[in-house]
Amino acid sequence: MKIKKYLTRFMLVCCMGIATSSCAEWLKVDMEDGIMEDALYQENEGFLTVLNGAYSSLNEVYGSTWSMGPLDVMAQYYNVPANGTHPYKVYASYSYTDATFESTSGSLWTRLYQIIANLNVLIDHCDREGSAISPRYYPFVKGEALAMRAMLHFDLLRFYGPIYSSQTESTPAIPYLDIPNNKDMVAISSAKEVCEKVLKDLKEAEKLLNEDPVREEGTMASDSEIPNESNDLRYRQYRLNYYAVQGLLTRLYMWMGNKTEAYNCATTLLKEVTEKETFPWVTKSAATSVSAPDRLFSTEVMFALYNTSRDNLYDALYGQSLEGNALTFVGGLSGENSKLESFYGKNSSSDYRRKMWEEVVITGDDDDEGAATESTGITYFLKYEKVSTDSHFRYMIPLMRISEIYLAVAECSNDLEEVADCLHQIRWNRNLTQDEDVTEENKMRLITEEFAREVIGEGQLFYFYKRNAMTEFPSGTEANGTYKMLPSSYVVPLPKVETDNRQ
User: Fold this and answer.
1) Residue 354 contacts residue 340 (beta carbons within 8 Å)
2) H or E segment at 172?
3) What's the rounded Cα separation, in Å, for the pair 455 and 278?
4) Residue 449's closest CA among 433, 465, 434?
5) How far is it, in rounded angstroms, from Cα 470 to Cα 441?
6) Which residues are CB-contacts of 325 (< 8 A; sequence separation ≥ 6)?
7) I need a surface site. Which of 21, 192, 241, 471 has the fewest CB within 10 A?
8) Using CA atoms, how far apart are residues 180 and 329, in angstroms rounded to an integer?
């Protein structure tokens, strides 16, 4: 497979980047080498190089922090006691002033604004008079760059901004950086202003990507069979394609509390992709394969990272060699002391998602009298475990999937039959046949449970809880317990690399 070639093309982005410690500093410095920048954009290939470099750079942030890892620990998925010795306890306890958290936050902030700044230069060059970008590639390069700029700002807002409401929309949140090579410090925008700018970028990207080949030819997850034809516009699951933009619009509208627009966007999207079978449900044979099980349900993924270091990330977060320092579930595979049992619910043994876990029993050492101590079972997460090298999802890390859109429709709908159908679509395609009747009283609970099961390891559950201002949700340290969440814990303070430069 040649996808690696097209998504990890030699990164001349460094010609445009500046080592910086904050968004504020980034805006005060001239381009180190304007000649090299101009040279980069003298050919169509240079535009593709910069865009592909931006996609590759996403792995530095989303791969380890904003998909699997700390962000999911903050959603209390895993057995990480806040008062224990686990290396991720600062995230489980929302210890935002801790040096470890501050370091993570500062690095995340800095890298994302570096990527955004590079995207701004790329977008600017797309529209310059006499631009070298070809008419064929222009809508894709600019459209995807705008979509990525919107996505990064939106995720910064979701992380650092307030719980969005009419009472908090005027709260200062983050800077929206949309001017290339700006030498002035950009003011911090309110949550509402950021959302409006994200919406503007996404709407423009939607128009530019209207003729995205994904709408007629699907995800094109293989090389072209036409001799000498470029693959630059293929592998659409790994690009911010037209449907991914619709998914981002749905997320944005829901974040803003505009359920009418979210519903319209999500139902229109589902209607089109269902008719065209663009993101088909995973098959039983793929999900239960012995040699290469598709635990990602990869055909359903609307947008993903292509990360050749995924095995290393898996070993560092979930590997069995980590034992007590791995991100695991409490208890074994079943029984009263099993979080797996409570998380997936009763009568869920056939659920494909439940097959993502494996229990390893560790036999205790003999005590002083020679009697064996009690054995301990550790339930390890296998979603990103290495699979055979010929699997097309070998390096995939999902960032958006079609089931999220079904759940968005369910959350926004006032028709309980429609809600039930959306939930049933997901559960039926997870090999489950028994559905709980949907009522006004249990609707949100059922949606929340399915959302948590669908996106584990993908960094979306914390945002779901925050958007809904949930003060109680399942605990990661107890099989059947709940975690009492303080509303203030949802709001991450801006990192010192930013605030110190604004004093």
Assistant:
1) yes
2) strand 172-175
3) 20
4) 465
5) 16
6) 86, 87
7) 471
8) 45
Tokens 């370091």 map to which residue?
103
139 three-class SS: helix
Please tell me the pTM assigned to this model.
Answer: 0.92
Q: Which residues contact 300 (CB under 8 A, 6 or more apart)?
A: 279, 280, 281, 282, 401, 402, 403
Amino acid at 411: E
At 182 the pLDDT is 72
Task: Please enumerate in sequence order all residues whose Cβ is within 8 A of that of 74, keeping only pairs 6 or more positions apart, or say none.
Answer: 91, 92, 94, 462
User: 372 in helix, strand or coil?
Assistant: strand
Place of tokens 């809600």: 419
Cα–Cα dist 360/342, whole Å: 19
Question: Is the dihedral angle over the CA atoms 132, 136, 142, 144 positive or is it negative?
Answer: negative
- Round to whole Å and give the CA distance between 254 and 270: 16
Which phi and psi angles does 93 have, rounded to 5°? Answer: -100, 5
In this predicted structure, what is the pLDDT of residue 113?
Answer: 95
Q: Indicate the residue type of 339.
A: K
Alpha-carbon distance 178 to 168, whole Å? 23
Backbone φ and ψ for 376, nearest 5 degrees, come out as -120, 135
| 461 CB-near residues (< 8 Å, 6+ apart) | 72, 75, 77, 451, 452, 455
**Closest C-alpha to 116, from 176, 157, 198:** 176
Q: Enumerate the H helices of 308-374 as residue ranges.
A: 310-317, 339-344
Residue whose structure tokens are 């709408």: 215
**The token pair that represents 34 in the structure block:** 């304007």
Rg (the chain; Cα; Å): 23
Tell me how crowded residue 98 is: count the other CB atoms within 10 A of its CB.
14
The angle at the Cα of 141, spanning 138 to 145, to the nearest 5 degrees, equals 135
The tens digit of pLDDT for each residue in 157-202 reads 999 999 999 999 999 999 999 998 777 788 999 999 999 999 999 9
3-state class percentages of the chain: helix first, strand second, coil last, to nearest 5:
50, 10, 45
| Tokens describing residue 344 | 């997936």
H or E, element range at 126 = helix 99-126
Q: Which long-range contacts (CB under 8 A, 24 or more apart) does 287-295 make?
A: 287/352, 287/355, 287/431, 288/352, 288/355, 291/388, 292/387, 292/388, 292/390, 292/391, 293/355, 293/387, 294/391, 294/393, 295/355, 295/356, 295/382, 295/383, 295/384, 295/385
Alpha-carbon span 471 to 391, nearest angstrom: 41
d(CA 328, CA 73): 10
